[in-house]
Amino acid sequence: MLDLFKFPWPCAGHANTGGPNGFISPFHDIPLYADKEQRIFNMVVEIPRWTNAKMEINKEERLNPIKQDVKKEKPRYVDNCFPHHGYIWNYGALPQTWEDPNHIDSNTQAKGDNDPIDVCEIGFKVHAQGSVVQVKVLGCFALIDEGETDWKILAIDVTDPLAKQLNDLSDIEQHLPGFLHASREWFKVYKIPQGKPANQFAFNGEPKNRDFALNIIDETHRYWTALMSQQGQAADISTHNTTVTGSATKIEQEDAQAIVDQAPPLGPAQPIPVEVDRWHYIRL
Length: 284
Hints:
About 15% of the residues lie in helices and about 20% in strands. The protein is of the alpha+beta class. The chain is globular and about 50 Å long.
């Protein structure tokens, strides 16, 4: 796990001092590849497994801090759809990727969702929010979320005891029987308690293999590269960064420090509402 960077906002108990490489954007400054030759990727953990808080890289704010999503002035939590509790993987994103909303995906016939590509890390460790974990890609699901393409990359921490045995999609079912079915079910039903319909998938809900997923990652990395060179169009995304060579929105550490200094002071942790632990029983 990388310990080279400091996200722009501190975790509880930490000061706004930056790390050995200063302040960064977890969206733009962390390299996509940890080892390009071996196709090992860096994953930014937004949501640790078994937790409910809907945390995500904030695209709109400068330096893209990880923040809890808010709806109707209330922090968002994912519902527990029996038998699942919270997120059933370490959930996060691949940095330096972007699902371009101006592009209609030829596989799904739906536009991108305007986010970095999502990752479900399936190893046994529960990783802390903000961790940068090196992962091996195994496959993906193609979720169609409210009419938009929302790829879900399946990957495993390279230090996991099963990492050497899991090299492609078929290995997941062999060594983790039922896990692909549970993951598909989770994505299908998780919005139903909020009164929304079941989510749909491309490919009749069947996951695609490693090579397919790698091609999707390469494509979304190209869209991110175009975005950073101002060839892509995304008025609602902050591309401010501290390391991307040639970027018109690259800033110095002094400017990054000023952005962080403008953040509200860190307050005490608030209690999680009791209803977050409620089970929801879904009949499709």
